[in-house]
Amino acid sequence: MKQRKSFLLRIDPALYEALEGWAEQELRSLNGQIEYLLKEAVARRRKKLRDEPNDAAKQGDSTG
């Protein structure tokens, strides 16, 4: 198994508290919640980038 990377994250205290509360609701550690959210964001971005060329082609293909 690959070793996990660790790094220092500076975060606004209000955001920290909000994430901490959300993590508790989801039964995750704060670290686990942040990692989950980042994975979700990366997956959405990859999907968006994958889908964008098709959308641009459809918009440019309108003949009238």
In words, what does this structure look like?
There is one protein chain. The chain contains 2 helices and no strands. The protein is mainly alpha-helical and 64 residues long.
Question: Which helices and strands occur, and which strands form pairs?
Answer:
Elements: H1 13-25, H2 30-60
Descriptive terms for the model:
elongated; mainly alpha; 64 residues
Question: Quick gist of this model?
Answer:
The chain contains 2 helices and no strands.
Structural class: mainly alpha
List SSEs in N-to-C order.
Answer: HH
> Fraction of residues in helices?
55-70%
- Molecular shape: elongated
DSSP helical segment count: 2
Residue-averaged pLDDT, rounded? 88
What distance lies between the first and last C-alpha atoms, to the nearest angstrom?
56 Å
Measured on Cα atoms, how large is the radius of gyration?
18 Å
Total beta strands? 0
Largest sheet: none
Strand content: under 5%
Oligomeric assembly? single chain
Uncertain runs are none
